[in-house]
Design brief:
- The protein has about 325 residues and is of the alpha/beta class.
- The strands form 3 sheets. It has a 7-stranded mixed β-sheet, with helices on both faces. Strands 8-11 form a two-stranded antiparallel ribbon.
- It starts with 12 loop residues before the first strand and ends in a 9-residue tail after the last helix.
């Protein structure tokens, strides 16, 4: 008898993890597959898809499970998942994370916001939404987001025994990093216990999300004659908020001495300056704030600041529309006037 609650036409239960480089989704997918195969006797496969191997770039990890008598011969990316795990909420700005999700599927999101706001931003009509503050758990336990998300995923996938993942965590860390075993098990348990659910009723005959594969704007059929570049290289329209790992620099102008140490180490020229006069009437550049549209949250500026005018701040996705925050961070919405 199958222990899998749902299966597609090929007999697979499929999970897709959406993340950015640095949050550990690749390792989470491997550990999840290992638990299902070695701990539960399922057949399974796992692989990841990513571009340049650097922090902040989009990452997808795919996990397939099937009964032991089913052979896995499909190694293509998962287009119609039963479960989607979103490790970094800001991904919805650049990636269609719910693409292909079954009508009664479950989407797990690392977030602090309420269910309805997340539902609206993701364009989710029905199905089950699960929310866990994985970043908070990871910070408090001094571990990584991926272990907290694994705990929540095991709560989502009720057919998986959490004891098997605890064994995988122990096996993964005990040889090289034995000091990380207990903190990661605590992180896993907290993710398992702290995840919350809300189900939006699925109407009769409802269809799942259509899968859409992003296509390049220009190709060999659509390129201008002669290979003319109609959009020269620029950074005006780029938005790096999806690359932040959960923290951004907070600027306190009253502590700033305008030394430009932050601007010197910033890789993306996020700092906004304005010319004025010092106390003696001489021209001087004064730091006005940070343009968060271009900030990827590396926090190098916080390390370089000699006066504590910059400190790390927990990012709350979607707060750019809050008027009180706009007053405190006038450049938060992005774009230099």
């Amino acid at each position: 008898m199958s222990i899998l609650p749902k299966k597609n036409d090929l007999g697979f239960f499929e999970i897709r993890l959406e993340s950015i480089g640095g949050l550990g989704a690749n390792l989470a997918g491997k550990m999840l597959a290992e638990s299902g195969v070695l701990g539960h006797g399922l057949n399974g496969s796992n692989f990841s898809s990513y571009g340049s191997e650097k922090k902040g770039s989009p990452v997808k990890s795919f996990v397939r499970f099937c009964d032991p008598d089913v052979e896995i011969r499909d190694h293509s990316p998962i287009e119609q998942p039963h479960v989607v795990g979103v490790f970094h909420e800001a991904l919805y700005k650049t990636v269609d994370v719910v693409s292909g999700l079954h009508s009664d599927g479950i989407i797990l999101v690392n977030s602090t916001r309420n269910f309805d706001d997340i539902k609206n931003d993701l364009g989710l009509e029905y199905g089950t939404l699960a929310v866990v503050d994985a970043l908070k758990i990871a910070v408090e336990e001094k571990t990584k987001v991926n272990t907290a998300m694994l705990g929540a995923l095991f709560r989502v996938c009720e057919f998986l025994n959490p004891d098997e993942m605890r064994s995988v965590i122990t096996k993964t860390f005990e040889k090289k990093y034995p000091q990380f075993v207990e903190p990661n098990i605590r992180t896993f348990d907290r993710g398992f216990n702290e995840v919350q659910f809300k189900t939006y009723e699925v109407p009769a005959g409802a269809k799942g999300k259509e899968f859409s594969r992003p296509l390049p704007k220009l190709g060999y059929l659509t390129q201008e004659i002669g290979g003319v570049m109609t959009a020269q290289a620029n950074s005006i329209q780029k938005d790096l908020s999806g690359s932040r790992g959960g923290f951004l620099p907070e600027f306190a102008q009253d502590k700033c001495i305008n030394c430009a140490a932050c601007d010197t180490v910033c890789p993306d020229l996020c700092f906004v300056w304005e010319q004025g006069e010092d106390k003696k009437g001489r021209p001087q550049m004064f730091l006005q704030g940070i343009d968060y549209q271009y900030c990827k949250g590396c926090l190098k500026c916080v390390e370089a600041c000699p006066t504590e005018a910059l400190s790390d701040l927990r990012e709350m996705i979607g707060y750019a529309d809050d008027n009180s925050v706009k007053q405190k961070f006038p450049l938060l919405a992005g774009g230099v006037n």
